[in-house]
Amino acid sequence: MLAGKKIVVVGGSSGIGLATAEIAKRAGADVFIASRNAERLKAAAEKIGATAVATDVTQDDSVAALFRATGPADHVVVTAAQLRTGPFKTVAMEDVRATLEGKFWGAWRVARAAEIRAGGSLTLVSGFLSIRPRPNSAIVGAANGALESLTRGLALELAPVRVNCVSPGIIDTPIRAAMPEAARKEMLAKAAAALPVGRVGLGEDIAQQILAFMTNGFATGSIVYLDGGALVT
């Protein structure tokens, strides 16, 4: 269903973004992937047969250059995030601002700079902390909530481009690689045991929903929570 379509995945060098790019490529799309880490980006692009464009979503000029390089696109996806968090009273304001720059303002910049063909789509990725907060993550929940609100507003302002958002629960992606391996496995096992589906999510789970938003022409202003049932437990 994506044969001949041009898709730009911002944050496409790993995790949910790379899974999305890979599935889109298999579906026949012409795929561009963008992220800050040029070395990892190049390796990912070579692996799946995509075009790499090194991009820093915290910089206006860098985002503008990305879309000059890609030209008009049919579908744009934003999974990029640079999350820094901690206890509300002590988390550094530098970290708070960096989280908003990477997660919220990055998506804002992409939405403004991208030229998306009529009937195409923009898909953002938030996170279920927007409606199920937990301690030490207030800034991440706030950024996610802002993205979901932005989705609804842009669905009106950018029409006939369709704008939607996927809000994942706990996903096993490389963003958790910084944790000690034993602690990571313990955390994921505990999370899986508490979910009705009995497992945590994978990047491919979220990518499938992103592709559904691309191909369903009746979906706009929608937010889908994919969390393995966390919100009903």
List keywords for this structure.
single chain; 7-stranded parallel sheet; about 230 residues; 7 strands; globular; 7 helices; alpha/beta; Rossmann fold; about 20% strand
Please write out the topology.
Layout lengths: L5 E5 L4 H12 L3 E6 L2 H11 L2 E4 L5 H11 L2 E6 L14 H21 L2 E10 L12 H20 L4 E7 L12 H13 L9 H13 L7 E4 L7
Parallel strand pairs: 1-2, 1-4, 2-3, 4-5, 5-6, 6-7
Helix pairs in contact: 1-7, 4-5
Shape: globular
Unreliable runs, pLDDT <50, ≥5 residues?
none
State the assembly state of the protein chains. single chain
Stated plainly, the CATH topology is called Rossmann fold
Total count of domains: 1
Classify the beta-strand content into a percent band. Answer: 15-25%
Order of SSEs, N→C?
EHEHEHEHEHEHHE
Separation, N- and C-terminal Cα atoms: 36 Å
Rounded to an integer in angstroms, the radius of gyration calculated over CA atoms is 17 Å
User: Mean of residue pLDDT?
Assistant: 94
CATH class: Alpha Beta
Can you tell me about this structure?
With 233 residues, the chain is α/β, with parallel strands linked by helices. It has helices at residues 15-26, 38-48, 60-70, 93-113, 138-157, 181-193, 203-215; strands spanning 6-10, 30-35, 51-54, 73-78, 116-125, 162-168, 223-226. It has a single domain (6-171, 203-226), classed as Rossmann fold, CATH 3.40.50.720. It is built from seven helices and seven strands. The model has no long low-confidence stretch (mean pLDDT 94).
